[in-house]
Records
---
Amino acid sequence: MFEILSNDEIAPLVHRMVVRAPRIAAARKPGQFVIVRHEEGDERIPLTIADAADQAGPLTLIIQAVGQGTKDIVATEGGGGILDVAGPLGMPTEIEKLGRVVCVGGGVGTAVLYPLAKALAGAGNEVVTIIGGRSAPHVILRDELAAFCKQVLCTTEDGSLGVKGFVTAVLKEILEDDARRPAAVYAVGPVPMMAAVSDMTREYAVRTIVSLNPIMVDGTGMCGGCRVTVGGEIKFACVDGPEFDGHAVDFRELASRQNMYKEHQCRLDDQANSPTAGGDK
């Protein structure tokens, strides 16, 4: 059992959970994730390690409660426990000094972006971060990113914080400015957002890395749910990634495959929330 040290809601349906897992903290690197299981027989949930206080300190996980599995996890208060936290898993981010980099985060994808941006800044890069959400309450980790980024730019769809619109509009302005154009762009968020960022940066020949965490299911590659075509080859996000060259990812195929699971997931959530469902969870 892994002890939950704290559990705070930082945005609507988004929790920051700090878990005691010293062995994982000592081995983790930016970009890697863990598999969490709340109780025996529960769903396996892949979650990016958002931060670790130090080499032997607790892990910070950012969890969006979208399905019954994640709802059960975030309902566990500090002082409680999680049965399984396995990791670190996945390929770590290749951190190098590139000069100027732009990190783009959409919604809860900002939680995945945070350790990447922090590591890039630590390597001596000038980091500008663009983060967005539906409205001000859905923009997360703004202050935390400001601690090491040269600039944190915010966008909201309703205009309640920062620029009204999407992160791609702000990125476009930076790419068009020769003096601000970065050596690389790192993007994490919904698949349509990462596809749009990759299409935009291709025009300027700016190296682009995307993190395909949103498509991971069991985290081992066995289920095939995170299968993706990259550069004409079949890859699995959880074992070959989760980070890939955004210009080589077949986003059209990926979006089509993702839509196949929406109806099934809605059915599962409806069954879990039904008053006639077994148990009292």
---
Amino acid sequence: MPAPLNEFKAALGAKEQVIGLWLGLTAPYTAELCAQVGFDWLLIDAEHSPNDVNAILSQLQAIKGYKSSPVVRPPSDDRIMLKKLLDIGVQSFLVPMVENAEQAREIVRSLHYPPKGVRGVGAGLARASHFNAITDYLQTAGDEICLTVQVETASAVANLPEILQVDGIDGVFVGPADLAADMGYLGRPGEPEVQEVVVNALKTIIAAGKPAGILTPDQTLARQYLDLGASFVAVGSDISTITAGLRGLHGAFFNGK
């Protein structure tokens, strides 16, 4: 029996466009609520949310069985953290702050067993192998790992052509917020100068035959990115959606106070 099929990776490989939602509330109950709505993928964020390994595990368990595919953004490219996430069953990763091809190659190595990589062998203890019930997990796990990397600085964008050539990169995600800050437009990712770089980066990714991804709560921008050919687009977060709903409800009864 092989490792479980990674439907997110299969969708990207088939050039499908998939719509996602960011999860930052660290709660399995919220994750399940978002999963039952039917987004194609849900990003469990451990970079800017207080998600530790146990919190991520509980959300993976809550999402399992729904249509939505889980993707995890670790706090960094730390090899030990990636190993822990692999063993609890994470198959799809969005690794932040990737600056160059050498860093990307090292991340690929972290996610794969030897000889392709350096992932430690502990499948007998791992949820990923169904606690060793998947008898050929070691031989098939790598086929179902999906690695997307995030470029979010001017230097990363400059190095994008080389990053795109790295074997084992399944997609590249553009981070407008950090890119804007790096360009001198902190908190202003919608500035024309920033958007020009964002769009050119997306075009470069698409022209290289790789899936391109991005997050924006702006529905007009999201549709423009999809029309451009972006493959995986996140259109909001659990936090922003709940906050907007609460503020709207509050305003309806408190006269906007």
